[in-house]
Amino acid sequence: MKKADEDINELVQDEDISDCLEENVWVHEGDLTLDGELSVNNGALAVRGNLTVSESVATDETGTIVVTGDLACRHLYLEGNLEVQGSANVRGVVYGFYEAGISRVVGTTKARIGLFGNHDWECEDENYETLARFSNNHELHEGDPEALRKALGEKAFAGLGRMMGLREEEAPEAANNAAWGLALLKDL
User: Fold this and answer.
1) What whole-number distance in Å separates Cα of residue 111 and Cα of residue 127?
2) Is the pLDDT at 95 greater than 70, yes or no?
3) Distance in angstroms (rounded) separating the CA atoms of residues 174 and 156
4) What tens digit of pLDDT does each residue of 9-52 get?
5) CA–CA distance from 152 to each of 66, 166, 171 (Å)?
């Protein structure tokens, strides 16, 4: 992996994501396979090829990931920016919460669960067993609360239900932020 010494914007198809790229951009030539988790913050990672991660892939509000091929992982957590020019295959949950980020998947997204708050998410071909679209901390716009409870389990549903506008009370030991939601999803 090397620090970008080229115009990385040539790799990025989405103009809004391209505009977010500044310094601290790292480029990996070819397919990249990682055992464990990948979290990108305060910069960007561009993979010229496929990205395969055995556990979660996450961007915080300061992070960007660009994959010119396909992305495969256990969970995909999005606060920041993501561009996948191929398809995304997620064994667990795609969770887009924070409204500062922009996420685009050009190909197909497949996941067990899709949870989308006010995150700017676009994918024309999505396939989820369970889906929820909601306004952050306000109301559920799409999805069946009981199907979500069953798919997420009681612990995750108790915490995420407030974020989806399905519960008034705080979950036990809850921090009222999106990152806490990611911690709940690790058990799935």
Assistant:
1) 6
2) yes
3) 11
4) 778 888 888 887 777 889 999 999 999 999 999 999 999 999 99
5) 28, 14, 14
